[in-house]
Amino acid sequence: MGQRLQGIEEFVAAVEAGSFALAAQRLHVTRSAVAKSIARLEARLNTRLFLRTTRSQSLTEEGHGYYERCRRVLAELEAAEAVATWRAAPPRAWCA
Q1: Is the pLDDT of residue 62 over 70?
Q2: Whole-angstrom distance, CA of residue 25 vs CA of residue 5
């Protein structure tokens, strides 16, 4: 399962940032790390997610659909973590 999630965070960050460089800044990694992660993801999926030129990037049709689903998956993971963290927190005394 772990390998199936690799590259998704970088992919979503690149889509939302509009560039690999800005996504790298937001994720605190290098642009090269983001590009390699997305390249591995595309290879694993056997499809192109981005159309890249030296000056721009845009999503392919497959990339659009994959992004929408990945965004929902990441939102669900965030919600699950929030619930787990909330339930694991020690009870707090009520303040009067």
Answers
A1: yes
A2: 21
- Report pTM: 0.82
Is residue 82 within 8 A of residue 20, CB to CB? The reply is no
The CATH code of domain 2-76 reads: 1.10.10.10
User: Which residue matches tokens 């994959």?
Assistant: 66
Q: What angle do CA 12, 28, 60 make, to 5 degrees?
A: 25
Percentage above 70 pLDDT, the chain: 89
Structure tokens at 34: 């983001």
Name 47's Cβ contacts closer than 8 Å, sequence gap at least 6: 60, 62
What distance in Å separates the CA atoms of residue 48 and residue 41, rounded to the nearest whole number?
A: 9
